[in-house]
Write a structure and sequence with these properties.
The chain is an alpha+beta fold. It is built from four helices and seven strands; from the N terminus they run E-H-E-E-E-H-E-H-E-H-E. Strand 4, helix 2 and strand 5 form a beta-alpha-beta unit. The two termini are about 20 Å apart.
Length: about 160
């Protein structure tokens, strides 16, 4: 049975196994991040993981990671995972969530209803972003304004 839930300390080992299986370079998983993360489980097996980094003193966050096991891709697991993560952020009074545009994520974030835009992070925000900024300091992001995001019709087709 598939379910999506907030990550727990006991999930750390299985999350790291998923990250390694998908060949993502990470040395450790900060236990503090587990409260800001969700997992997709197929029974006891963790098949997806996503987390956000909340920017201190601001009501915004950045999606740090979104992983679905290769076997389960194309089955709308990522849609459910990102929407669950946004719901978690909304419940915690976060007003905007951003996902940084990468080469392979544009179609996904557009499909689930995030809006693409340019973003110029302040110095306070820049230290939390794991991407080099261009010479102009602008990055492309996908934005979800909460709770308005949930008032739009679902963009996924299932």
């Amino acid at each position: 049975m598939i379910n999506i839930r907030v990550s727990e300390e006991k999930d750390k080992k299985k999350i790291l196994e998923l990250i390694n299986e998908e060949k993502i370079k990470i040395t450790d998983l900060d236990t503090g991040e587990l409260g800001n993360s969700m997992v997709v489980c197929d029974g006891e097996r963790i098949i997806g993981y996503s987390n956000y980094i909340k920017i201190p003193n601001l009501n915004i966050a950045f999606v740090d990671m979104l992983i679905i096991n290769n076997t389960y891709r194309g089955q709308y697991m990522g849609d459910g995972l990102i929407k669950s993560l946004l719901n978690l952020a909304d419940k915690r009074q976060i007003k905007k969530v951003y996902a940084i545009e990468e080469n392979n994520n544009s179609a996904f974030f557009k499909k689930v209803g995030l809006t693409k835009r340019e973003f110029k992070p302040s110095e306070d925000i820049s230290k939390y972003i794991k991407k080099d900024l261009g010479a102009d300091g602008i990055i492309n992001v996908f934005e979800a304004i909460l709770p308005d995001f949930f008032n739009k019709a679902c963009k996924s087709k299932g």
